[in-house]
Amino acid sequence: xxxxxxxxxxxxxxxxxxxxxxxxxxxxxxxxxxxxxxxxxxxxxxxxxxxxxxxxxxxxxxxxxxxxxxxxxxxxxxxxxxxxxxxxxxxxxxxxxxxxxxxxxxxxxxxxxxxxxxxxxxxxxxxxxxxxxxxxxxxxxxxxxxxxxxxxxxxxxxxxxxxxxxxxxxxxxxxxxxxxxxxxxxxxxxxxxxxxxxxxxxxxxxxxxxxxxxxxxxxxxxxxxxxxxxxxxxxxxxxxxxxxxxxxxxxxxxxxxxxxxxxxxxxxxxxxxxxxxxxxxxxxxxxxxxxxxxxxxxxxxxxxxxxxxxxxxxxxxxxxxx
Length: 322
Description:
The chain has 16 helices and no strands. It is mainly α. It has a domain at 13-203.
């Protein structure tokens, strides 16, 4: 009897409607992006930065979760590994999203203007790091590293599926051990380069961890949504139960709290220090229409999911997770 028979799994092809919906959404999104660049290219370029870092969170965050699973020797999450491997493939399309940013770098980054740099002592002191050639080199390095680990993880995983050889798991454990410290460095510097340098006079020593917490939460959320949806549609094996859902719910709840903790820690330290070069970041986001976005983030990103996942039964409820 095959393994598929033992676990009650029947392989199904993806319906044609999935492809049609996907292509339709892609075309609509592409039209909106093109229209945006014609109507307001500067604002659209900033939107591209947000999109790029969102895709980094999904792709690289999924790689991190795959690596943690191998290192922890987790068994419960093995049936869902393919989902996170699929999400990790997002890293391969990052150059396409980076292209519009490349052609609008001088509109996005203030430190790209040399005439402003020479007049500003803060920007001049950072020019050895914040300059266009080095910036591009770093992002090429990030992309090569993330893509290489993606191919290593998924390549060994597919070979194990085809051969049943458990040695590929041990290989991926060693690869995961190498990936974790590299992930910590690349994800932190990517956040500093693409987000924190938008306000080059401001800095935060905890910003890399802040982005990391959001990255893992994003990847977990995307993976949990797919797990619940595919399970409901019968694309996963029948052995999925409340224990699996609880594991996802507990992880989501943990990283919701971790994200809030890091965000509040950053705010508390800056508020206590009361240094002008640090407080400016919060002052800009607490004036005008930005205050509504700040409050919206606090409520939607923390308070609502915290309340929805607080109880133990909620963590096992697929409707709450979805």
